[in-house]
Amino acid sequence: MLGIILTGHGGFASGMEKAMKQILGEQTQFIAIDFPETSTTAQLTSQLEHAVNTLDSNDDLVFLTDLLGGTPFRVASTLAMQKPGREVITGTNLQLLLEMVLEREGLSSEDFRLQALECGHRGLTSLVDELGRCREEVPAEEGI
């Protein structure tokens, strides 16, 4: 099964993991690593390398990160480029995490990336847009 490493600033990763466990329960091949203010790039690199080695089988691996260009993203990107079958997705939110954890069985890292990007775009919406979508779906009543 494809492995997932979730990382981000502050308590992002552990908070998302806690929410995921509340909704879906414990998940295999999943590791969350925070990057608190007191940490360094070297410490994060070491933690992510350890996570990669823990999950590294012959299956692909995906890093989910919080912010494009941030330290967790940069470190994950460096590790992802070291071996084929690794992907980095940034801008992770809870909907994306939940859907992709459930949908990852049998996916390659590339297929996971493509599906996750669709999920992320679909998941970013607003109340007004959703209410408008509901109105569009209700068939208009025909007059006399």
Topology (elements, then pairings):
Layout: E1 3-9, H1 12-24, E2 30-35, H2 41-55, E3 61-65, H3 71-80, E4 86-90, H4 94-103, H5 109-123, H6 127-137
Helix pairs in contact: 2-3, 4-5
Describe the model:
By secondary structure, the chain is an alpha/beta fold. It has six helices and four strands. α3 links the parallel β3 and β4. The protein is elongated, with a radius of gyration of 18 Å. The N and C termini lie far apart (58 Å).
Strand order of the largest sheet: 2-1-3-4
Find the structural class using helix and strand composition.
Answer: alpha/beta
Helix fraction, binned, reads 40-55%
Largest sheet: number of strands, sense, barrel closure: 4 strands, parallel
> What is the CA-CA span between the terminal residues?
58 Å
Mean pLDDT: 92
Estimated radius of gyration: 18 Å
Query: What sort of overall outline do the alpha carbons produce when their principal axes are compared?
Result: elongated
Please work out how many helical segments DSSP would assign. 6
Quantity of strands, as a count: 4
Question: Which series of helices and strands comes N to C?
Answer: EHEHEHEHHH
Key words describing this protein structure:
single chain, 144 residues, alpha/beta, four-stranded parallel beta sheet, 4 strands, 16% strand, elongated
In short:
By secondary structure, the protein is an alpha/beta fold.
